[in-house]
Structures are given as structure tokens and as C-alpha cells.
From TrEMBL:
Superkingdom as given in the UniProt entry: Bacteria
Species, as recorded: Methylomagnum ishizawai
Signal sequence segment: 1-18
Protein name per UniProt: HNH endonuclease
UniProt keyword Signal, yes or no: yes
Protein keywords: Signal
């Protein structure tokens, strides 16, 4: 039975956990071997006009080509790819693998724990890693295993700020 896209979005927005975290059996995350603790200043923390993430982002055509397959693999009833962001579980800004499907999942856009919120966490953790406040492996593991808990740890309760 298919749920209408609008109804599915309403369910995602109101149901805690619906699509908020990836299934670690499908998307366990993977890292880019080019990024290590030893080369942070030359890789993800390099200060240039052309960031590491921009230079390593796979083309939209690649992400679009795997979107429908991943949406089906996740069992989402709403199969409209526009309702998801093909997200890197371990973000490129923290040394996530850019093209390994084990690091890419269809993250629901309309939910309390949206892709936008995860993006904010990614930037926060990137800044902390580059300042030496959090180790690279720690940041990668915390965002990989439960990015929502990492958000609460590093940023706080989202209901108390926008």
C-alpha cells in the first residue's frame, strides 16, 4: 500500500525517528583514506577559496543515479527523490568517503531532524576538529553512529534555538 506523498511527508514530520537516522546495516558509513589526523591542515582544514568538500563532492548525476535504488532499499513509501537529500553519513567535511554507497543515504528533508539540522552539526564538528577540540576519529564515529545524539551533545536541544 502506497501512502500519498503529502501524507508521507506529514508522517515523517510528526513521527520521531521516521527517516531521521540511517539504517547502519544499509549505510554503515565509510571514510576517505586521503583524510587522516596527520594531514588535517592539508586536507579538510585547508583554508582556501576552494574547500575540500567542494573538490570532493561527487557529481549530482552520480547521486541522482543511486537515489531511487537507495529510497527503495530503505523501504520509504514516498519514492519522490525531491523529498530527500542524498546525504553522506560521514560528511566530506569530516573525511567521509564521497562515492562509497555505504556512506550515502536518502535523508528525509521534512522532519524535526532534517538534513539542514545535520548540516549545521557537520559544520560545528568540522570547526571543532580543525581547532583540535575534537579528534577526527571521534567526530566521525559520533556522527556515524547517531548524529542526533551528537547534535544534542555539541549543539544542544534544537527546540531551544532555531
Amino acid at each position: 500500500m502506497k501512502i500519498a506523498p503529502i501524507l508521507a511527508l506529514a508522517l515523517f514530520a510528526s513521527t520521531a525517528g521516521a527517516g531521521d537516522l540511517p539504517d547502519l546495516n544499509i549505510t554503515p558509513g565509510s571514510t576517505d583514506p586521503e583524510v587522516t589526523e596527520a594531514n588535517l591542515k592539508e586536507s579538510i582544514c585547508k583554508v582556501t577559496h576552494f574547500t575540500w568538500t567542494e573538490g570532493h563532492m561527487p557529481p549530482a548525476s552520480f547521486l541522482n543515479s543511486i537515489a531511487q535504488q537507495e529510497i527503495k532499499q530503505y523501504g520509504y513509501t514516498d519514492e519522490n527523490a525531491k523529498h530527500y537529500q542524498m546525504d553522506h553519513l560521514i560528511p566530506l567535511s569530516l573525511g567521509g568517503n564521497p562515492t562509497d554507497p555505504k556512506n550515502i543515504w536518502p535523508q528525509v528533508l521534512v522532519t524535526k531532524w532534517s538534513a539542514r539540522r545535520k548540516d549545521f552539526l557537520e559544520q560545528t564538528l568540522h570547526d571543532k576538529v580543525c581547532k583540535g577540540e575534537v579528534g577526527l576519529k571521534v567526530a566521525q564515529e559520533e556522527i556515524r553512529t547517531n548524529w542526533i545524539e551528537a547534535y544534542k551533545k555539541y549543539i544542544g536541544d534544537p527546540d531551544k534555538h532555531s
